[in-house]
Amino acid sequence: MSKSPNSMLYVGTGVGVAAVLTLAANFADHFVQPIPDNPSIWVAPENSLFVAAANAQAEAAGGAKFGLGRAALPEEIAAWDLDVSPDGTGLPEGSGDVWTGDELFAEHCAVCHGDFAEGRDNWPKLAGGQGTLDRKDPLKTVGSYWPYLSTAWDYVHRSMPFGNAQSLSADETYAIVAYILYSNDLVDDDFVLSNENFLDVEMPNAEGFIVDDRETAEKHFWTDEPCMENCKESVEITMRAAVLDVTPEDETAEVEASAETEEQQEAAAVASGSQKGEIEEASVEATPAAATAAPDPELVAEGEKVFRKCKACHQVGEDAKNRTGPVLNNVVGAPAGHIDDFRYSKALEEAAEGGLVWTPEELHAFLADPRGYMKGTKMSFAGLKKEEDLDAVVAYLQSFSQ
Prior knowledge:
There is one protein chain. This protein folds into 4 domains: about 1-70, no CATH class; about 85-200, Cytochrome c-like domain (Cytochrome Bc1 Complex, Chain D, domain 2, Orthogonal Bundle), CATH 1.10.760.10; about 240-285, no CATH class; about 285-400, Cytochrome c-like domain (Cytochrome Bc1 Complex, Chain D, domain 2), CATH 1.10.760. Helix content is about 45%, strand content about 0%. It has 16 helices and 2 strands. Helix 4 crosses helix 7, helix 6 crosses helix 7 and helix 12 (about 295-305) packs across helix 16. The radius of gyration is 34 Å and the shape is extended. Mean pLDDT is about 80; it is low at about 30-45, about 255-260, about 275-280 and about 280-290.
């Protein structure tokens, strides 16, 4: 009687397994070290901080040490122990001024966060947003949201620049944080941040946070028996997620929403017509005298300091050239978009066609809030918040007008 195919298959499989096991045993004999009699004397790599931490944890728990690794060296611990507390604990000695920070920010940070900390693409904004936290779309920045300056210093020093973390010295970190404060109009341009005056800086949202007391205030949530069914007699819609637009609307609500949209469109049309009328009126009232009036020399000197915020994009003077923004020689009193070899935004071109003239008043309005004044402008600067800065920089620009 002949052997069945299944029998042959079993025999072949058994022989194959035996061969593999024999080969594995021979390999282990030659290349795998035997288990020592006392496993506790195994030695980990000398730089293993993990096993050192394991030893310390075991000893603290009352157990025996594993006999692994070594104690971490002070310099190794210091490399990880970088945190800075709101009360200043952990701050190293050092200092940095706003304008050194301006240069460092342009070199290390602007590629992601913009020249004025206004953000770029999807990278976060670090400046602006004051007064927006009560809106449906708040802008959370260092100036509007962060309650402690130590958070900014710690993050910059520990994690920035992106891709080259912890490459900044303490002095460089102080300077960059000083510039971020300046970009949020929280300090003046001559400010020097140091470990000595660090706690003197008041953050606008310092009182905007509360202590997390959920462990006690909401203790009943963790201890009470949870309700699993029929927890309420009835379920009603009490609020509508208008921002997300996910709550179903009834017909009445849709009609009201449609009417509200029409009203908003009418208001926008009126506002647009009003702005166009103001531009046309400004063009009629503009006179060469506005450009030729001699500005106050002291105000011009102050304006030169304020103009430092603009120098990243604009130049003035005899050898001025177009950069990200156009040359600003003779801008006061000139028609908008008057530089022939510069490519302006479509929004500014339309304003120029409408007769916009850069009178001192129009420059004031534009420089206070560029994007609010002209929707679609390429000007990324957040704006000058102080009236005296606006007066000064316009006077400075007038000094370069013929």
